[in-house]
Amino acid sequence: MSEFENLLREMEAYAAEHHVPIINERGRRAFLEIIRAEKPHRVLEIGTAIGYSALLLAGNGAEDIHITTLELSEERAKTAKAYIDRSPYSAQIEILQGDAGEILTQLQGTYDFVFIDAAKGQYVDYFHKIQPLLAPKCTVVADNVLFRGYVRSEEKAPRRYRTIVKRLREYIALTSGAEGFTTEILENGDGLAVSRRNA
Ligand code: SAM
User: Fold this and answer.
1) Is 72 in the pocket of ligand 1 (CB under 6 A)?
2) How far is the CA of 196 from the centre of ligand 1 (A)?
3) What is the DSSP string of 138-181?
4) Average pLDDT of 175-187?
5) Cα separation of 147 and 128, whole Å?
6) Which residue, 29, 91, 94, 144, has fewest beta-carbon neighbours within 10 Å?
7) CATH of the domain spanning 3-198, picked from 3.10.20.90, 3.30.160.70, 3.90.470.20, 3.40.50.150
8) Local structure of 71: helix, strand or coil
């Protein structure tokens, strides 16, 4: 196993031990397929956690990939930086610590790939806020959109999840109807919404 693969395994163990939600194994496989097929250059990630998915992106995207990743928690942003600094991709990943809802209104870049994986109740807001930042041809992937199966279930979700489920349904409806985008929902893992614009 390469040093980089060892680092990823170490991060998976850290996430399991410290209950940090990183992209799960089934979702990861579909996520990797997408990245390997699309080879993104300019990536915006919303929700860094400990930097695991950022490193998957860096290791499987274009050679010249640059990733801007946003994380609310100071502690997680620090842990992510420490892991990323141990990888071959530290010069290509920039972590911005703070509330994504605010940071998104200040960013100026153009991104061909966005990975939304932060506060599930905010996905609709994130999708609106990233519009001025998207390249004409772009892909937006959102994780957890089927949220434990509740989003597509006829059964009522437990009370504590109802708002999240309602908001994720709104996200799917928004991206499915967004002009210029085609959206597919992959059932892998906790559900990935993949929205592509080819213009
Ligand atoms: N993408 C990561 C991976 O797969 O390795 C996992 C991200 S985890 C599911 C979600 C992260 O979003 C958490 O670390 C959480 O602290 C962060 N988060 C939650 N609300 C946020 C916000 N408003 N702004 C930025 N980050 C936020």
Assistant:
1) yes
2) 22
3) EEEEEE-TTGGGTTT-SSPPPGGGHHHHHHHHHHHHHHHHSTTE
4) 96
5) 21
6) 91
7) 3.40.50.150
8) strand
Q: Which of 19, 26, 29, 48 to mutate to test the pocket of ligand 1 (most atoms within 8 A of CB)?
A: 48
Domain range annotation of the chain? 3-198
pLDDT at 199 over 90: no
What φ, ψ does residue 181 adopt, rounded to 5°?
Answer: -100, 145
Q: What is the pLDDT of residue 26?
A: 86
Please tell me the distance from the alpha carbon of residue 81 to that of residue 64, in angstroms, as a whole number.
20
Give the largest CA-CA distance in the chain: 47
Question: How far is 47 from 53, CA to CA, in rounded Å?
Answer: 9
Residue 183 Cα to ligand 1 midpoint, Å, equals: 22
For 41, the 3-state DSSP assignment is coil
CB neighbour list of residue 55: distance below 8 Å, 6 or more residues apart: 4, 7, 8, 11, 83, 84, 87, 89, 93
101 Cβ closer than 6 Å to some ligand 1 atom = yes
pTM of the model: 0.97
Instruction: Check pLDDT > 90 for residue 1.
Output: no
CA pair distance 199, 191, nearest whole angstrom = 26
